[in-house]
Design a protein that fits this description.
Blueprint: H1 4-22, H2 52-64, H3 71-84, E1 88-92, H4 95-105, E2 122-126, H5 131-139, E3 143-147, H6 161-164, E4 170-176, H7 185-195, E5 198-202, E6 210-214, H8 215-220, E7 236-240, E8 247-251, E9 264-268, H9 272-282, H10 330-341, H11 343-361, E10 368-370, E11 376-380, E12 384-387, E13 393-395, E14 400-405, H12 413-422, H13 439-447, E15 453-454, H14 459-467, E16 468-472, H15 479-496
Parallel strand pairs: 2-3, 2-4, 3-15, 4-5, 5-8
Antiparallel strand pairs: 1-9, 6-7, 6-13, 8-9, 10-14, 11-12, 14-16
Helix pairs in contact: 1-2, 2-10, 3-10, 4-5, 4-9, 11-15
Length: 497
């Protein structure tokens, strides 16, 4: 009989060899074994970036056949939390599910009554973005209150937060860091502290972005420590996005900063109670916190009396919330653990790719407008970004390279997108654009005009919807691919003038 351990090692050896032969085009762009890009081939806006290490991890975990979230998931959760410097990270099956769990957790009766989100309460969000940042607010019975977006940064107009506030109704702010560009965290945190509101950071596009502020300002908002691995000197506090609010969310869908195929996470920044509540909503709504396959962690499995259940009813089948089943699989977590070890490399590649595109397209500033990080006032090829007087700074691990076609240009955003498509260059809108124009929200408002509240005329969100698109910055883009993108856009812009 063949030794099972030896047999597994042989399977994994062959797995690695198979991956090297078949998946060469998915290796990081800087990998010398990467299959060269051929001119005339597609240039995706995003995609999986992996080597035989991820494939081996997935196959090895599958051979063990635990499948549901287990030891690999537990390890990944701890490793992600340690990287970010948060108290807990909980794996879920998508970034959208992460948003659903995060906002659902804030509806729990286990929270203080004055902070709990109840049906009809309001959550401030931004009109331009991805629909599942907003849909969970509606799905838990709350009212999304929309502020406008800045067409340059893509982020919320945080100067409208006060206009959106309604005493006794507003309970939280939930917004995304658009395309890997942090929103104005200093202004948002000050607003949330003033009114004792929850802050949920949708960090799905922004893993590896950081935000810093002068130490006196940070300490006034309750922050004195840097995130692990980040330091801007004794006079500043710098932290990863996703660690400033109460809860944050991640997506591990292939376009994102690391991937499990599908998958996401809910990060609990500091409050232990939120971890237990979020885990309950993720795991069917049960009151028990035992991991799968483990019983009686509390040593009183048959010692509880909750609700109107009889004394001693099995705690594993006691439900304190109307929850879901949103866990991923353990083989996905095994892939994610390998990806997490590449994250710093991936972050730098995204920054470098953005810089290459920005420098290459700078000559077309007469017809194209390029994104600026929040708090930046301009960009120069020699000196980089200039910053506003707030003292706050953003360091973007860009999800995408946003371009807007300026008013008066001899072509439209759609015509530019069509030209990119003709040349097999992947491009995307800023997701749903102004969500108020999307069929689902038009119908929602038609059926119930009080289902949402809108603060302003949404001109910025409309401009993003009408004039903007983005290219990829993901770490699978080689220099030749980026130069081809620059060539196509430059030729199109020049000939259209």
């Amino acid at each position: 009989m063949t030794d099972p351990a030896a047999l597994k090692q042989e399977i994994l050896r062959l797995t690695r060899e198979y991956s090297r032969q078949v998946h060469g085009s998915f290796r990081p762009a800087a990998d010398p074994e990467r299959t060269p890009w051929q001119e005339g081939s597609t240039i995706p806006y995003a995609g999986r970036v992996f080597t035989e290490d991820e494939v081996e991890a997935a196959v090895g975990s599958t051979l063990d056949f635990w499948l549901t979230l287990g030891s690999e998931g537990e390890a990944f959760q701890k490793e992600l939390a340690a990287f970010l410097g948060v108290r807990h990270s909980l794996l879920v099956n998508s970034g959208s599910s992460a948003n659903l769990v995060a906002i659902s957790a804030l509806t729990s009766p286990k929270l203080p009554a004055e902070r709990r989100i109840r049906p009809g309460d309001e959550v401030i969000t931004v009109a331009a973005g991805f629909p599942t940042t907003v849909a969970p607010i509606v799905q838990v019975g709350a009212v999304p209150v929309f502020i406008d977006a800045d067409p340059v940064t893509g982020n919320a107009r945080c100067d409208q937060l006060e206009l959106a506030y309604q005493a006794g109704k507003t309970k939280a702010v939930m917004m995304a860091h658009a395309l890997g560009n942090p929103f104005d965290l200093a202004a948002t945190l000050a607003f949330c502290r003033k009114y004792n509101l929850w802050l949920v950071e949708d960090n799905c596009d922004a893993l590896g972005c950081s935000y810093s502020m002068p130490r006196p300002l940070a300490e006034s908002l309750g922050f004195s420590e840097n995130s692990p691995g980040l330091d801007e000197g004794p006079d500043r506090v710098v932290r990863w996005t996703g660690t400033w609010g109460d809860i944050s969310t991640q997506s591990f869908y292939p376009p994102h900063h690391l991937t499990m195929g599908e998958g996401g996470a809910v990060n609990i920044v500091s409050e232990q109670k939120l971890k237990v509540i979020a885990e309950s909503f993720r795991d069917w709504g049960r009151d028990c916190w035992c991991p799968s396959g483990i019983d009686n962690t509390c040593n009183k499995r048959f010692g509880w009396q909750l609700g109107e259940l009889p004394q001693g009813y099995d705690h594993k089948y006691t439900y304190s919330h109307l929850g879901f089943n949103l866990k991923p699989l353990d083989p996905q977590a095994a892939i994610g653990r390998v990806q997490l070890r590449r994250l710093l490399e991936f972050i730098e590649a995204r920054k470098q790719n953005w810089e290459i595109l920005r420098r290459g397209l700078a000559v077309h500033e007469d017809v194209l407008e390029f994104a600026l990080p929040t708090h930046a006032t301009s960009w120069d090829a020699d000196t980089g970004f200039s910053w506003d007087e707030s003292g706050c700074r953003t360091d973007c691990s860009w999800f995408g390279f946003k371009i807007a076609v300026k008013a008066g240009a001899p072509f439209s955003r759609t015509e530019l997108a069509q030209e990119l498509d003709r040349n097999l260059i992947g491009n995307r809108m800023l997701f749903g654009g102004n969500l108020m124009r999307q069929p689902a929200f038009v119908e929602l408002i038609y059926d119930n005009p009080k289902a949402v509240r809108i603060i302003s005329d949404m001109n910025g969100s409309d401009m993003i919807m009408s004039d903007s698109l983005f290219l990829g910055t993901y770490p699978g883009l080689t220099r030749d691919m980026l130069l081809r993108e620059i060539e196509v856009i430059s030729n199109f812009s020049s000939h259209a003038k």
